[in-house]
Write a structure and sequence with these properties.
Elements lengths: L25 H16 L4 E3 L9 E4 L7 E12 L2 E7 L2 E10 L2 E7 L5 E7 H14 L4 H4 L1 E5 L8
Antiparallel strand pairs: 1-2, 2-3, 3-6, 4-5, 5-8, 6-7
Bound molecules: zinc ion.
The site of zinc ion has 6 residues, from helix 2.
Length: 158
């Protein structure tokens, strides 16, 4: 496994729509392993493939310590309610802003072996799923946020 460099806001890579993963193979699994390592190294809650320069529809999240999920070709099948909270992004280091996200979200995706799986969650997990899916569309939280400002302590970032 290896740490990957994180692409920062201002780089066009973060503004492109990512393409589907066509085949879930060893290369994809290796990238996912690197992404988990990189996310943990940065104390992140999530990390999307374009944030490490890979223009494919996949991401990793760890909304609670030890609860890592890897999603490939995710598709939102349900999103209800609204929660408003502060969030940050590993591609926008040192800043936080206030964003409206679904309170509950249900996502269908492939796992690292190409099996169809359902992920659902509320709270921080719903925020992380929504934030990472936005990355795959070239959307950053700063596009939606109000009151983006420098964080005093290292924020939880995705
Ligand atoms: Zn992010």
């Amino acid at each position: 496994m290896a740490l990957r460099n994180i692409v920062l806001k201002g780089d066009e890579i973060l503004r492109k729509r990512c393409r589907e993963v066509e085949e879930v193979n060893d290369r994809i699994r290796m990238i996912l392993d690197d992404m988990v390592e990189t996310m943990r190294n940065q104390n992140g809650v999530g990390l999307a493939a374009p944030q490490v320069g890979i223009m494919r529809r996949m991401f990793v999240i760890e909304p609670e310590e030890g609860e890592v999920a890897e999603l490939i070709n995710p598709r939102i099948i349900e999103a209800t309610g609204i929660q408003t909270g502060e969030e940050g992004c590993l591609s926008v280091p040192g800043y936080i802003g206030t964003v409206d996200r679904p309170e509950y979200i249900k996502v269908e995706a492939l796992d690292r072996y190409g099996n169809k799986v359902i992920h659902e969650g509320e709270g921080i997990k719903a925020v992380a799923l929504s934030h990472e899916i936005d990355h795959l569309e070239g959307v950053l939280y700063t596009d939606k946020a109000t009151g983006v400002h420098e964080a005093e302590a290292a924020p939880e970032a995705e």
